[in-house]
Amino acid sequence: DIYQGRMKGIDICLKVLRIFTNGEMKPRGDIRKKFCSEVLVWRNLEHPNVLRFVGVNEDLFYPSFCLISPWMKNGDIISFLSQNPGHDRMQCIREVANGLHYLHSHDPPVIHADIRGANILVTEDLHCCLADFGLAKAVMTRGPESYSDSPSGTARWLAPELLQVDASSDWQYMPSRDIYAFGCTVVEIFTGRLPFSDIIHEMSVALAVLQNDRRPTRP
């Protein structure tokens, strides 16, 4: 959940981790684990095309936690382009690519794992920056303990190999995952529509990709 606030005269965004799933409260230890995972990656990032990390708060929304970043009044890139269709879309793509290159240039590389229009915000001076590092990881090893057993993310932006039931865990956090999602996001930025916009359900997208070898339609 997202809230707007002010700190030292500056508008800020408070991202609060949800503590209820299907009406049941998650253990605070599980919430803390997710919270710390995002903070550990995000707090070390500093680039014009990456949303700036401001801080954290463990008390304001207790028992949950919140992450603090600058407030982006222009919203995400897709909403912004729908209201400003004349904006330079190639410049948007270059800036997303610059942010992604910065992440992957770390040693070890940082894998965002959720590149899509909704996670690209537009700054006050109209530049794009990558946001939402909830799925991101710094890939320290190639061992199976470094990965989840099933892919996280949204089917419309997931590479085909990640949609397979028997997908290798080694693929879950590799730079190529972000590159495929970036390609889908390029389509999204140019068309203003979701990848596979003719398909309603996420599961149907996965089946179309795996069974019919579908790919997002190029503009």
From TrEMBL:
InterPro entries: Kinase-like_dom_sf, Prot_kinase_dom, Ser-Thr/Tyr_kinase_cat_dom, Ser/Thr_Kinases-Pseudokinases, Tyr_kinase_AS. GO terms for molecular function: ATP binding; protein serine/threonine kinase activity. SUPFAM superfamilies: Protein kinase-like (PK-like). Gene3D superfamilies: Transferase(Phosphotransferase) domain 1 (1.10.510.10). The keyword Nucleus does not apply. The keyword Transferase applies. It comes from the Eukaryota. Residues 1-219 form the Protein kinase domain. Pfam families: PK_Tyr_Ser-Thr. Keywords: Kinase, Transferase. This is Kinase-like protein. It comes from Armillaria solidipes.
